[in-house]
Specification:
Elements (H helix, E strand, L loop, with lengths): L11 H14 L5 H7 L5 H13 L1 H11 L1 H4 L5 H12 L10 H8 L1 H7 L4 H5 L8 E5 L6 H10 L3 E2 L8 H9 L5 E4 L6 E4 L4 H5 L2 H4 L3 E2 L3 H10 L6 E4 L6 H9 L5 E6 L2 H13 L5 E5 L15 E4 L21 H20 L6 E6 L8 H10 L3 E4 L1 H4 L20 E3 L1 H4 L4 E8 L5
Parallel strand pairs: 2-3, 6-7, 6-9, 7-8, 9-10
Antiparallel strand pairs: 1-4, 1-5, 3-4, 10-13, 11-13, 12-13
The protein binds S-adenosylmethionine.
S-adenosylmethionine (SAM) binds next to helix 15 and strand 7.
GO molecular function: RNA binding; RNA methyltransferase activity
InterPro entries: MeTrfase_RsmB-F_NOP2_cat, MeTrfase_RsmB-F_NOP2_dom, NSUN5_7_fdxn-like, NSUN5_RCM1_N, RCMT, SAM-dependent_MTases_sf
Protein name: SAM-dependent MTase RsmB/NOP-type domain-containing protein
């Protein structure tokens, strides 16, 4: 007899997180998608455990291996073991209930700590997060003045500053923000900037739940701003889910005109439909399809196109990815092939197109400058606009200037300099026959 009471159930939140981790480890879906889909109310709290596991995966797996906990307890589910070990050693440092898996992991606590080198705190310590919390006002549902009034009611202090002469002064002001202060972004009118310590506050705020506020990083906000479709125009968003940029584009267009939002993945398509509806987008026509098959007959009169294809995500700072960070040339080649096809389709299939924004959350030239170069070679009726000039030259990071006529016109947000995730943006315009 083991002495354990087998009828005591494992708490649901541990089981749910373990199920998500198992699916992600089996490469059936990405962690990000699984988290979006997760409905269990307690799951939000448990996301921190997943993040800790992802950040310390090597060390935790090694400790589990060294202690032989799985070999000695063959009925213990490996994913559940990873979740419980992470929670016990790096997370809350305690486990709920008296179920057998919980008791087993507790029994191994000292051995696990020893296997982790005796000081698990040094592992669990987060890198200092200096990225501010960006909060964008969704003007479909909330006016800027109403947003500022709510902030004043909540005792947030608006940082006063003269108009910024240059970008460096602006970055300095962000770094000097106090915890109860906020300021407005200098490039994106409806973007609020808070001290990094307020990340969780805004993640659980009612305005965020109601989609009046969108938690959208600075770089991704620049895409809709630079595409800049006027109210009443017709836009095609070729890779639209979950819908952050579609929603922003609808704000830029004052919710007037048409946005065809295409997504091929059925689950992500449902997320796109729900997100854009709850964000008050009245002009979005969602299309479940492979964007490469979408025609001008289906989406008539398209003037502005957003191409934001799947990419390596190498620019994302807090990405929940189980993939190792090293550059994988084979994967990049495949991604770049699809990115070129997608951008070329945008350039060739829609006769009324005036402007195209191409963006990735990658810092690799293979997915950025090289895609732009190839597409311009294949489609000479397009030229690049200078994204930096569009930001009144108050910007620093552009592309690699070794790509002649390309690098200097493209824009990067770089985590090391711009206090934002790494994003690449290129803006194309159709040339007139005289050009
Ligand atoms: C980087 S995400 C887009 C993020 C989105 N623009 C936003 O701001 O929320 C890329 C999306 O493109 C979708 N996708 C990839 N290839 C596609 C294709 N051929 N047709 C339509 N959607 C595609 C992916 O499923 C994914 O949801």
């Amino acid at each position: 007899m083991s002495g354990f009471n087998h009828s005591v159930k494992v708490p649901t939140q541990y089981k749910r997180v373990a199920a998500v981790l198992k699916t992600a480890l089996e490469r059936k879906k990405s962690l990000k998608t699984l988290i979006y889909e997760e409905k269990h109310a307690r799951f939000r709290g448990m996301q921190a455990v997943l993040k800790q596991y992802v950040d310390n995966r090597g060390a935790i797996d090694e400790a589990i291996e060294k202690t032989q906990i799985l070999q000695e307890n063959p009925r213990l589910c490996p994913s559940l073991c990873k979740v419980l070990v992470t929670e016990l050693i790096l997370g809350r440092k305690q486990l709920n209930g008296e179920s057998k898996p919980v008791q087993t992991v507790r029994e191994y606590r000292d051995r696990l700590i020893e296997a982790l080198g005796g000081d698990p705190n040094s592992l669990g310590q987060k890198k200092k997060d200096i990225k501010p919390r960006y909060v964008r006002i969704n003007r479909n549902l909330l006016g800027i003045n109403d947003a500022l009034a709510m902030l004043a009611d909540e005792q947030w202090r608006k940082k006063d500053h003269p108009p910024f002469e240059n970008y460096d002064d602006f970055l300095k002001a962000i770094k000097e923000l106090e915890e109860d202060e906020y300021m407005m972004d200098m490039h994106v009118d409806d973007l609020l900037i808070f001290h990094p310590k307020n990340k969780h506050y805004w993640a659980s705020h009612q305005y965020t739940a109601e989609k009046r506020f969108m938690l959208q990083d600075k770089g991704t906000c620049l895409v809709a701003e630079l595409l800049s479709p006027p109210a009443g125009s017709t836009v095609l968003d070729m890779c639209a889910a979950p819908g952050m940029k579609t929603i922003h584009v609808s704000n830029v267009m004052h919710n007037q005109g048409v946005i065809y939002s295409v997504e091929q993945n059925p689950e992500r398509y449902n997320i796109l439909c729900n997100m854009t509806k709850s964000a008050g987008c009245e002009i979005v026509q969602p299309i479940k399809a492979d964007a490469l098959t979408v025609t001008a007959e289906q989406c008539q009169g398209v003037e502005y196109i957003l191409v934001d294809p799947s990419c390596s995500g190498s620019g994302m700072q807090n990405r929940m990815s189980l993939d190792p960070d090293e550059k994988n040339p084979d994967r990049l080649k495949k991604l770049a092939g699809l990115q070129i096809k997608m951008l070329s389709h945008a350039m060739t299939a829609f006769p009324d197109v005036k402007r195209i924004a191409y963006s990735t959350c990658s810092l690799y030239e293979e997915e950025n400058e090289q895609v732009v170069q190839r597409c311009l070679e294949m489609n000479p009726s397009f030229k690049l606009l200078s994204a930096k000039k569009s930001l009144r030259n108050k910007w620093r990071n552009v592309g690699n200037q070794e790509y002649k006529k390309i690098g200097k016109n493209c824009l990067y947000t770089r985590p090391s300099d711009d206090l934002a995730d790494g994003i690449f943006v290129a803006i194309f315009e159709k040339t007139t026959s005289e050009e």
